[in-house]
Specification:
single chain; alpha+beta; five-stranded antiparallel beta sheet; three-stranded antiparallel beta sheet; 3 helices; about 25% helix
Length: about 130
């Protein structure tokens, strides 16, 4: 069976793994998943990630982060999806939880947070929100 939305699958794996307090979660790797992981690491939501080779196929392993026994990611949601893409201009980029959360945006300059996109003066596809 083919997967129609691998990014949503990746975000769901992180969400489910944190619910059961797993230290690491594995999923098939792709360039966009690695870029999302890099942004999550830069923003302090995960403690690390690594791309490993599993029988010739790349596998992404994400080390989850907990603060005082609670997950660092309280909520992670997919915004743009294959059936309904969510594109926003530079002035229309959403702020998650009054600026306390992070919005991940795909722009022509690559994946970046909403703050970085506003600073660069670009808009794009809103991939997900993290709080």
């Amino acid at each position: 069976m083919t997967m129609t939305d691998p990014i949503a699958d990746y975000l769901t794996r992180i969400r489910n793994a944190q619910l059961v307090k797993m230290e690491r979660v594995k999923c098939p790797s792709s360039k966009i998943k690695v870029a999302i992981s890099r942004l999550l690491l830069d923003e302090g939501y995960i403690s690390g990630y690594e791309v490993k080779d599993n029988d010739g196929k790349p596998e992404l392993e994400v080390a989850l982060k907990y603060v005082n026994g609670r997950p660092a990611i309280e909520e992670i949601k997919r915004v743009s999806r294959p059936g309904l893409r969510a594109y926003r201009g530079k002035g229309e980029l959403p702020e998650n939880r009054a600026g306390l959360g992070t919005v991940i945006v795909s722009t022509h300059l690559g994946l970046m947070t909403g703050k970085q996109a506003r600073a660069a003066g670009v808009g794009g596809e809103v991939i997900c929100t993290v709080f």
